[in-house]
């Protein structure tokens, strides 16, 4: 299974609010693109924080044509070169610096009116690349208008899930008290908790573990809205969502109101679960999660909710069961969708290391660099493959004791080159030295 280019995953995350919409009203596409262009992003390999409207629009139509493959970066043959002459370059940059709010169209018209360039003689895309290369492509936004915010609720269960992490209580782990983190996925329409678990960290691996269980229990959502934390930005998580057709949408920094329903659930959990929790009964993390899951299924999901017109979250969720996407045939492939791939060098003895353990791979891979296909949740190596995703064989835990009696593969015997009757340097030298006539 080929890895998805990180830049393509980033571009898909930018497009999330657009491509996840089931339909767009007339003029709504441009409005959404304009809003996306005003947001700040952590752009891979760049110090810039904004993406231009035209760029987002180009990504959108590329996605419509080719899917995620259309979002993979294409190398320009003229990259780093501008077709604009140095004199006109200076005029373009001066016009932009003089008034940063000038658009590309205004700059082109200004230079044409001033007689610096001929009519239709300056490409807008060339001006855009020049401004972008010079760090002047971003328009200053207006701060005179307050941002419009509106309450909303998804029409159907499974349309929108929210993901977030909350600090939890401490539990004994191998004789020491360890802090826990509650990782949750929460359905917008029904207020049902798709899955939630206390973990010892808030890493991408912890989030993926909760997502996997949520998919098995509650189907496949259309969108998952998360914050901009590094764990949610992990390429493994974005790749899983892309392969399952889930749009991973990132909230803008410092805008937590986008996940207000989940924050309200966190408050309910603190008031009704954590306040009643008897820490003396917790012997480990499993005990804590066992109580959480029992409380969710027996109490929270079965309690009438004011925001649901008196329905319970479970009843509201079950009402939309016919509309919820199931895993279908992908259920059998779910484990493989959550596999990670890491590069490793195969030692001379045909082994590789993973999490402090050694695994044997096909011996002919010795001395080569391969990709290990690992199940990070089970801490085991599933197999090995090349950079194209082609399987190169299985990986098994090293059993050094069993290898004592293991039959070694020996190289094929090499034919004796001395068996032929052709010329032989040793015999020729012998014949010359001893004065004989034949070297046979």
Please report the total strand number as a whole number.
12
DSSP summary: helix tally: 13
CATH class call of the largest domain: Alpha Beta
What portion of residues belong to β-strands?
A: 15-25%
Computed over alpha carbons, the radius of gyration is 31 Å
**Helix/strand structural class:** alpha+beta
- What order do the helices and strands follow? HHHHHHEEEHEHEHHHHEEEEEEEH
Rough outline: flat
Provide a compact summary of the structure:
By secondary structure, the chain is α+β, with helices and mostly antiparallel strands. 33% of the residues lie in helices and 17% in strands. Helix 1 (6-19) crosses helix 8 (235-243).
Write up what this structure looks like.
The chain is of the alpha+beta class. The protein has 4 domains: 6-71, no CATH class; 86-133, Arc Repressor Mutant, subunit A (Orthogonal Bundle); 160-323, Ribonuclease H-like superfamily/Ribonuclease H (Nucleotidyltransferase, domain 5, 2-Layer Sandwich), CATH 3.30.420; 335-405, OB fold (Dihydrolipoamide Acetyltransferase, E2P), CATH 2.40.50. Helix content is 33%, strand content 17%. It is built from 13 helices and 12 strands. The protein has helices at 6-19, 28-37, 53-66, 86-98, 104-113, 124-133, 204-218, 235-243, 260-274, 285-298, 313-319, 334-337, 425-434; strands spanning 160-173, 176-187, 193-199, 223-226, 247-250, 340-345, 351-354, 357-360, 369-375, 380-385, 391-394, 396-397. Strands 3-2-1-4-5 form a 5-stranded mixed beta sheet. The protein has a 4-stranded antiparallel beta sheet with strand order 6-9-10-11, with no helix packed on it. Strand 9 (369-375) and strand 10 (380-385) form a beta hairpin. Helix 1 (6-19) crosses helix 3, helix 1 (6-19) crosses helix 8 (235-243) and helix 4 (86-98) packs across helix 5 (104-113). The protein is flat.
